[in-house]
Amino acid sequence: MIDRIWMNGEWMDAGNAHISPQDRGFLLGDTCFETLRFGEGVIEGKAAHIKLLRKSMAVLEMQGGPDDADIYAALEEAEAALNKSGAIEASVRITFSRGQGRGAVVLGEPMLVIQMSKIEAGRPYAPLKLITSPIRRNETSPLTRIKAGCYGDHLAALRHAQKAGGNEALMLNMQGNVAGLAMGNIVVFKENGLITPPIEDGVRAGFMRQQVFKRMKDQGLQIEERSVRCSEIEQPEGVVCGLNSLWGVRPVISIDGRQMPNSSPAYEQFVLRA
C-alpha cells in the first residue's frame, strides 16, 4: 500500500492516480499542504496537522473536500500500511487543491490527496549549514504564515544555498529581520529557554514549532517570541536550530561558513528531556 494514493476518499495504485491538467494546483499553485512524519510506528500529530491544513484553507478561502474524520481515518490506514511495509521512517503529505480552472474561475470539485514516501536516512539528520538567501520573505503576505503550494521562493533560496556549499537557507523578511529557513522554522536555545521570530515577521506556526513550545513549557523553560536581527543568529549566545515536521530539532553548525556554538544549558536540557 506504500505505492497507493488516497484521492478524495478512495485508495488507488499510484500509477492510476491522475490530476487534471486543468487543476488549479498544477496551473497556479492554488493549493495548501501538510507534511507529516511516520516514525516509531506512528504518523505524528495527525489531528494537529489536519487542524493546520484547515487553517491554511481558511486563509486561502478554500472550502469543500473530505471531512476531518475521513482524512483522519485515511491517515490511520496509511499508518497501518507503512507498518506492514516495514518502513522505518516516511513522509506523509496531504495536499488540497481548490479545483480546476484559470484565474478567478473555479470549476469542478476540490481535490485532496494523501501520498506516502519512504525516507532512507531519517532522524537524526546531519547538522545544518545555512547560507543567507538574497531572497526576502514578504511578511505582509498571508501566504508566509501557511504552507501554500506556491513554494518557488523557498526552493530558489534552497538551490542558492546548495550552490554556495550549504544545505539550507536562512531567510530574512523585508525589514531585514530573521523570518526562518527555506524548509523550516528557526530557534536559538539560550541559557534558560529560547528565542524565535514572531508570526508577524513572516513565520509559519507549524507542527514542530508547536511541539517544541509545549515541551519547553512542560520543562519550565522560557519562550521569547520577538523580532530577531541577523547578528543574534550569526553570533548567538546559544545553539541555533532548525525545526520542521520531518527533521524534528536540527542543530545549525555554520552560517555563511562561520562555525556556530553547539551547546547551551537550555538546549542540553531540552534534548535530554525531549
> What would CATH call the homologous superfamily of the largest domain?
D-amino Acid Aminotransferase, subunit A, domain 2
Oligomer: single chain
Count of helical stretches = 7
Any idea of the CATH class of the largest domain?
Alpha Beta
Helix content: 25-40%
CATH fold-type name of the largest domain: D-amino Acid Aminotransferase, Chain A, domain 2
Using the alpha-carbon principal axes, give the shape: globular
Strand content: 25-35%
Q: What is the succession of H and E elements?
A: EEHEEHHEEEHEEEEHEHEEEH
The secondary structure category is: alpha+beta
CATH architecture of the largest domain: Alpha-Beta Barrel
Biggest sheet features? 9 strands, mixed
Number of separate strands: 15
Low-confidence stretches: none
CA-atom Rg in angstroms = 19 Å
Mean pLDDT: 93
- Overall number of structural domains: 2
Plain-language structure description:
GO terms for molecular function: transaminase activity. It catalyses: L-valine + 2-oxoglutarate = 3-methyl-2-oxobutanoate + L-glutamate; L-isoleucine + 2-oxoglutarate = (S)-3-methyl-2-oxopentanoate + L-glutamate; L-leucine + 2-oxoglutarate = 4-methyl-2-oxopentanoate + L-glutamate. Its EC number is 2.6.1.42. Belongs to the class-IV pyridoxal-phosphate-dependent aminotransferase family. By secondary structure, the chain is α+β, with helices and mostly antiparallel strands. The protein folds into 2 domains: 4-118, D-amino Acid Aminotransferase, Chain A, domain 1; 128-273, Alpha-Beta Barrel (D-amino Acid Aminotransferase, Chain A, domain 2), CATH 3.20.10. It is 27% helix and 29% strand. Strands 7, 8, 9, 10, 11, 12, 13, 14 and 15 form a 9-stranded mixed beta sheet that branches. The protein has a 6-stranded antiparallel beta sheet with strand order 2-1-6-5-3-4. Strand 7, helix 4 (152-163) and strand 8 form a beta-alpha-beta unit. The longest helix has 18 residues, at 68-85. The mean pLDDT is 93.
